[in-house]
Amino acid sequence: MADTKIHILTSRSVSLLIAVLLSVVPAIAQPRLDEPEMYVGAYGGATVSTVFFSPSVPGMSDLLKVPIGWNAGLMFRYGGHKVCAVQVEAGYVQRGWREYSATGGYDYTRTLHYIQVPVLAHIHFGGEHAQGFVNIGPDIAYCIQSGQVQESGVKQTTSTYQYRAIDHPFDWGVCGGIGFYGKHRRVGVFQLEVRVHYSFGSLYNNSRVEHFANSNTLTASLNLAYLWQVR
């Protein structure tokens, strides 16, 4: 049964990733700019995250009570087409989950620290100085403290499976965002984006003899960025 669930999840994950990649093809086929545009910049903001465990973990927080973290990093954008560019980022992001009891028996939070590299299709639309945009594409990440557990609060028990160090520090997934920015050739670009990331990699081993069949991360972020046009 566990192998069947894993096979279904893997098939769905691959199908979703293929659909994401194919969705950017029409944008790439748009007319080219007379002169390509290049931007470099930095971003930062707040994150919320949770983990989908199967079988489920009792007391997992709802969307209004998930742990709040932060992320920050650098970005590079190259645009050779009128409505589409390629954006590559490298940054730090906090992920994790929270378990709590409404009666106050326990309130436990786990925080995982990742270095993340998204490679995105940046599709933009609008006027010369104000534009909306959509970012979509795959990303990879590595947990830089998988052997050291950063946790706080009271656990449900001392023997539950999700309290040990994670088995897989390497992660891969897909992310998408929507936002808008104001731009001026002399001042630069100020950008605001809401982004969602879903992890296809499991935190813990998911073979037939393991407890968890799935342990996938969902992260949302609100980021403010500043970019400077270098070309």
Task: List strands and helices in order, with pairings.
Blueprint: H1 2-23, H2 25-28, E1 32-54, E2 68-81, E3 84-100, E4 107-126, E5 130-143, E6 150-154, E7 170-184, E8 188-199, E9 214-229
Antiparallel strand pairs: 1-2, 1-9, 2-3, 3-4, 4-5, 4-6, 5-7, 7-8, 8-9
Could you describe the 3D structure shown?
- The structure is a single chain.
- By secondary structure, the chain is mostly beta strands.
- The protein has one domain: Porin, CATH 2.40.160.
- It has 2 helices and 9 strands.
- The longest helix has 22 residues.
- It starts with a helix and ends with a strand.
Percentage of residues in helical conformation: 10-25%
Number of helices: 2
Oligomerization state: single chain
Q: What separation lies between the terminal Cα atoms? A: 55 Å
Number of separate strands: 9
Low-pLDDT segments: 1-10
Domain count: the total is 1
Second rung of CATH, namely the architecture: Beta Barrel
CA radius of gyration: 20 Å
> Would you tell me the structural class of the helices and strands?
mainly beta
- Structural shape: elongated
Average residue-wise pLDDT: 84
Q: Return the CATH class.
A: Mainly Beta
SSE order? HHEEEEEEEEE
Strand content: over 45%
**Largest beta-sheet details:** 8 strands, antiparallel, barrel
